[in-house]
């Protein structure tokens, strides 16, 4: 989180602050706060919830804020709540369970409410991004499969196709969006990809890429390393959260887009991030926060982001849910040599143990066909010379 006092919402907050100071009111249920001018973003958002009669949301937000203050006081991870970034938000989520002993359900309620607040302020450009947007829930009681995140807003694939076409195919944001939608990887995992994690079987791929040993004999494959931690590549980017290394076959549409991107992306980099920043010093990768801004800006521009409830907006994590749902619905069990569809999709998501991975890898050749044929299709056709 970061503060931007020159934003439109600041004037409205200042008016509320002055009214409270004039009336000498104490905001309940929290009382005087260790926060700028004793009336800040928590109170303002809580007042909005109260005006909508969302009193349970006010209570959850208050408890989440109290927990954040304890997190600040009991760890050396942040000096102030305003220091929160995506990495610190993940650490806070882990701390709730590991150190405070709260239930997973309570932890998810806290994160969900903080996420909603972060989305609200991001929408109004009061925060530079939402640090809680990439913190996943630990429970999935609404899912009949045990891992489908179907509590997010449903947007028809045809709508996504039209939005992508209207926005334009040949740009970095579209490449990022389609990669997320066709692979199910997290935004932080996308930002941590390097050139060696991609094998594209054409002349462009052979010119620009030197694939890692795990995929050098596996054309048209994306590799997600489970061992990348916060700061391993960039101090501004989160680590990968998956439990196992994952090889994800890519279909012809994504291959076309990535081929174009390899030719068009910023050049002359001293390091080899796959997705590269064009706003910072030469050689830096695209950070998680910058990637989040790319996706949210796209979503706002095409009309898929603008509600106060984060679950009603298309975000980077929405595409992971989209991929999960489409792969589960598209895949036929007869394609999998006896492996369940659930384990098949979990293998792709990388949120499984070695038992599922072993079963997934045993039939990796056949599974490649299943992945490529069932990956969501967007009707993308690019003409790229000298492939």
What keyword list fits this structure?
15 helices, 387 residues, mainly alpha, globular, 2 domains, hpI Integrase, Chain A
Structure summary:
Helix content is about 50%, strand content about 5%. The protein has helices at about 10-25, 40-50, 55-75, 85-100, 105-125, 155-165, 170-185, 185-190, 205-210, 250-265, 290-300, 315-330, 340-350, 355-360, 365-375, and strands at about 200, 220-225, 245-250.
Question: Could you walk me through the main structural features you see in this protein, from its secondary elements to its overall organization?
Answer:
With 387 residues, the chain is mainly α. The protein folds into 2 domains: 8-123, no CATH class; 157-374, hpI Integrase, Chain A (Orthogonal Bundle), CATH 1.10.443.10. 48% of the residues lie in helices and 3% in strands. The protein is built from 15 helices and 3 strands. It has helices at residues 8-23, 41-51, 55-74, 86-98, 104-123, 157-167, 172-183, 187-191, 203-208, 252-264, 288-301, 316-330, 341-349, 354-362, 364-374, and strands at residues 198-199, 221-224, 246-249. Helix 7 packs antiparallel against helix 10, helix 7 (172-183) packs across helix 12 and helix 12 (316-330) packs antiparallel against helix 13 (341-349). The protein is globular. The chain starts with 7 loop residues before the first helix and ends in a 13-residue tail after the last helix.
